[in-house]
Amino acid sequence: MSIIISENSQKTAEQLHSVAIHLLRKLRREDAACELNGPRLSALSVVVFAGPVTLGDLAAAEQVRPPTMTRIVDALAALGHVTRNKSGQDGRSTYITATPLGKKLLMRGRERRVQALARQISELGLKERTTLQEAAEILKQVIEAI
Asked: Residue 109, Cβ neighbours under 10 Å: how many?
């Protein structure tokens, strides 16, 4: 059974897609204060929030090939942001784990991005802030259903 998508739903989806991309691009400016480039920061985020994770799973999550992810993890390990640990059950499997230093770096960056967004939101009126909060809750539901 196919679902018929209204023109209004299509237009809303296109606007949300565009806004999400622009929001992330603007907030990434805050990452300039970080010592990591975008791919390394993104991989570290996956490790912090989903880890420990295998290299293959990390590559899949980041949509890159394993050799590319190996280079990213090597760089993160050299900087002290992640460690590699052999699986206790299968000695052939290695898990990537964030170090306290890696977690701290990532959380500081997240805080900078959130604060930048919060500053802009605080300049809105009460009605707009309330609407935005309601929209965020709805978006969360939509994302969970995808």
From this structure: 21
- Indicate the domain borders of the chain: 28-145
Q: Model's pTM, two decimal places? A: 0.79
User: Under a CB-based contact definition with an 8 Å cutoff, are residues 42 and 62 in contact?
Assistant: yes
Amino acid code (one letter) for 136: A
Q: Is residue 42 pLDDT above 70, yes or no? A: yes
Residue spans of beta strands (DSSP E) within 29-105: 53-54, 82-86, 94-98
**Hey, what CATH class is 28-145 in?**
mainly alpha
Q: Which residues of 121-139 are buried (b: 16+ CB within 10 A; e: fewer)?
A: eeeeeeeeeeeeeeeeeee
d(CA 55, CA 71): 11
Residue 65, φ and ψ in degrees, nearest 5: -80, 150
Rounded CA gap, 94 and 50, in Å? 15
Mean pLDDT of 2-9: 89
